[in-house]
Design goal:
Number of helices: 14
CATH superfamily of the largest domain: Periplasmic binding protein-like II
Radius of gyration: 24 Å
Organism: Actinomadura soli
Protein name: Thiamine pyrimidine synthase
InterPro entries: NMT1/THI5 (IPR027939), SsuA/THI5 (IPR015168)
Keywords: Iron, Metal-binding, Pyridoxal phosphate, Signal, Thiamine biosynthesis, Transferase
Strand content: 15-25%
Helix content: 40-55%
CATH topology of the largest domain: D-Maltodextrin-Binding Protein, domain 2
Distance between the termini: 42 Å
Order of helices and strands: HEHHEHEHEEEHEHEHEEHHHHHH
Subunit structure: Homodimer.
Structural class: alpha/beta
Largest sheet: 5 strands, mixed
Number of strands: 10
Length: about 350
């Protein structure tokens, strides 16, 4: 719109017509947001979200909500911050360094066992996303018994270091049925592709997409076994915050969750666009890998058992199983109730 020339007189007849038009336009725009918060004239509230790792498709809903203005519509300006592992992310959220983050139930329970107050406020990985990748050209795996003596490479701090023996026992196998190595996370996938290990701790919506990319380049046929298909009924990562934040500002928690799940709904329809957006901000990342991660995440976030409650809802029975499994695997002696680990109170 051209600015008025201060040297020319204002024609009042046109002004009286323009004012109602402008007022109508403002009213229309104010109704475009979820609650008009972004158009109220108030400054956006700065919020941090710790990704726990590098940007990837599993947290694509957060990036979608940033890109599509869903947070701004709630009056929020969200910054997605690179993380350095789930345990560190959850503990720093509990300490107040970050507002929200991508956290797993293992880290939340261990935080609680140490006297912390981290809480999961929304589910994302509604099932455990991890699995065992293997080279189908080298190994024929028909049952879990065929895994006997094979070497699994896993990150030194990966939950699988403690969960694997318990998972094997649950399936009637000895705890040492698979030989488990503690490795630098940076070399786990490449070591597997190079044949230095037999199995890879590969996660849907995360490193599995990269493993498949490396396998394609090496001409290998990779298949996998999902832990959840063999007696591991657990939640994976979700949205985590602190009990203090919930108590002090429940409206903020609700607003953040509303916008975030709108972001994941957008990613369900447009995984490629979300991947492109993440790659535009992180040019070192492969859009094809990000798209595969986002596609995987679109499956993980859906839970038929809680669909009627809307996205993010925790199932009490699965969360009870999650807590019991983690306490057993990590030898947590402190009594921790499932209701201390999660809440559904801010999803509606």
């Amino acid at each position: 719109m051209r600015k008025a020339d201060p040297r020319r007189p204002v024609r009042t007849r046109r002004l009286t017509i323009a004012v109602p038009l402008v007022a109508a336009l403002i009213a229309t725009l104010a109704g475009c947001g979820s609650n008009g918060a972004a158009d109220s004239g108030k400054p956006l509230r700065k919020i941090t979200f710790n990704l726990a790792y590098f940007p990837q498709g599993s947290t694509g809903g957060v990036f979608a909500a940033i890109d599509q203005g869903f947070y701004e519509a709630e009056g929020l300006k969200v910054e997605a911050v690179r993380g350095y592992g789930g345990t560190r992310t959850v503990n720093e959220i509990d300490q107040g360094k970050w507002d929200f983050g991508y956290g797993d139930p293992v880290s939340v329970i261990l935080n609680r066992a140490a006297g912390g107050k981290a809480v999961m406020v929304g589910a994302l990985n509604t099932v455990w996303p991890g699995g065992l990748c293997y080279d189908a050209g080298k190994h024929q795996i028909n049952t879990l018994r065929d895994l006997k003596g094979l070497v699994l490479g896993g990150g030194a701090t990966s939950p699988i270091q403690s969960l694997l023996p318990v998972w094997l026992e649950a399936n009637g196998l000895p705890r040492d049925h698979i030989k488990l190595l503690k490795m630098d996370p940076a070399v786990v996938d490449t070591s597997f592709i190079q044949g230095k290990t037999d199995l890879d701790d590969c996660w849907a919506a995360s490193n599995r997409a990269n493993v498949l990319k490396l396998a394609e380049q090496a001409g290998k046929n990779i298949k996998w076994i999902e832990y959840r298909d063999h007696k591991l009924d657990m939640y994976g990562n979700g949205i985590v915050t602190s009990a203090q934040r919930i108590q002090q500002d429940p409206a903020l928690v609700k607003a953040f969750l509303r916008a975030t799940y709108k972001g994941y709904a957008y990613m369900r329809e447009h995984p490629d666009k979300v991947a492109e957006y993440i790659a535009s901000k992180n040019p070192q990342l492969d859009p094809k890998v990000l798209t595969q991660q986002a596609t995987d995440m679109n499956k993980l976030i859906n839970d038929p058992r809680t669909a009627s409650q809307g996205p993010g809802w925790f199932d009490a029975a699965r969360m009870t199983s999650t807590v019991e499994t983690i306490r057993r695997a990590f030898q947590v002696k402190r009594e921790i109730a499932p209701s201390d680990v999660y809440t559904n109170d801010h999803l509606k």
